Amino acid sequence: MKPDRLLYPAPAGLYCPAGDFYVDPVRPVQRALITHGHSDHARAGHGAVLATRETLDIMAIRHGPDFCGAAQPAAYGETIDLGGAGVSFHPAGHVLGSAQIAIAVNGTRFCVSGDYKRGADPTCAPYEPVACDVFITEATFGLPVFHHPDPKGEIDKLFTSLKQFPERTHLVGAYSLGKAQRVIRLLRDCGYDKPIYIHGSLARLCDYYVSRGVDLGDLRPATLEKDDPTDLSGAIVVGPPSAFAERWARRFNEPLVAFASGWMMVRQRAKQGGVELPLVISDHCDWPELTETIRELSPAEVWVTHGREEALVRWCELNGFPARPLHLVGYEDEGD
Ligand SMILES: [Zn+2]
Fold first, then answer.
1. pTM (2 decimals)?
2. Chain Cα centroid distance, residue 214
3. How far is the CA of 319 from the centre of ligand 1 (A)?
4. What is the main EC category here (predicted)?
């Protein structure tokens, strides 16, 4: 049977009829397999959910304990039979608990990579290549212009700014799942051992990362004693980017707004967002990582989803890998 009869895009998401399940469905379904906890992939209201322990915990933190009818944890590498399909979860290196999902059906092996990156990140298990016939890849940064720099160099820019403006409170925008914890961990790995102040909305996820063995150092709530703005002079405050557009951010001393995102490569985006200090730190593959991964796996077919589909499909065709865009809708990653 042709692969596109075994796994295909349906209105609710990528569907496997042999196992009667969807991967990262965008609307409530009977059975969902979830790659990771970002909100566009991990929605509430499914009947049964199969995901890693961490992804299930993260979904419970974000959506409440009743986020689905029945939750089943999958350990990395364990094969689980679902009807006529055998599925297994493998580290994707994207955020804590993130997985690629391998699906073996009718002698064809698919790998749905979800979101993934190849660069080092001590806050989650590193990406593992999964041999497959059909590789389904994201293409968030799927244009040759996207090259992500060394994240430690970006953290150095923050240190330079702190030296240059020692009185100003440095507000670092970072999405609450994954990026915030990675930025904090990067600061620690670069030798920053002072307290880091966090917006209240990050507290539960930071606590959860710590409970899973990711040391984030001294974290404190970003509150000002007696509303004195000089309280956090020269401090680093990490919060979701949305919080920095609010009045909350203007209470700090001459706030300097930074934003950690792969999109900060695009100067226009930084400008529009009023970002004074763009930090190019991404939890997705850049163009060289995407193309190197495809070469490494050398699958019989590549299916490309969410992002710059056409450019990556074109690259695949030019390099001898049959490819097609999936045109799945509803994925706008919150995590970068
Ligand atoms: Zn994601």
1. 0.95
2. 16
3. 27
4. hydrolase
**DSSP H or E stretch at residue 110:** strand 108-112
For the chain, give every domain's residue range. Answer: 3-145+284-325, 151-279
- Quick one: average pLDDT of 77-93? 97
Distance from Cα 169 to the centre of ligand 1, integer Å:
29
Distance 49 CA to ligand 1 centre (A): 17
Q: What pLDDT was estimated at residue 333?
A: 67
**Per residue in 178-191, pLDDT tens?**
999 999 999 999 99
Distance from Cα 112 to the centre of ligand 1, integer Å:
13
H or E element at residue 325: strand 323-325
Ligand 1 centroid to residue 107 C-alpha, Å: 29
Instruction: Give 229-285 pLDDT, tens digit per residue.
Output: 778 999 999 999 888 878 888 889 899 999 999 999 888 888 888 899 999 999 999
Ligand 1 centroid, distance to 119 Cα (angstroms): 15
Same-fold call for 3-145+284-325 versus 151-279: no
- In the CATH scheme, what is the code of domain 151-279? 3.40.50
* Sign of the dihedral defined by the CA atoms of residues 147, 151, 156, 157, in that order: positive
Structure tokens at 227: 């509303």
Q: Give the SS3 label for residue 42.
A: coil
pLDDT of residue 335 exceeding 70: no
From CA 128, how far away is CA 118, in angstroms rounded?
9
Ligand 1 centroid from CA 84, angstroms: 28
The Å distance, Cα 285 to ligand 1 centre, comes to 11
Superfamily, domain 3-145+284-325: Ribonuclease Z/Hydroxyacylglutathione hydrolase-like (3.60.15.10)
Does residue 52 have a pLDDT over 80? Answer: yes
For residue 166, pLDDT over 70 is answered with yes
User: How close is the Cα of 246 to the center of ligand 1, in Å?
Assistant: 25
Are 146 and 138 contacting, i.e. CB atoms less than 8 angstroms apart? no
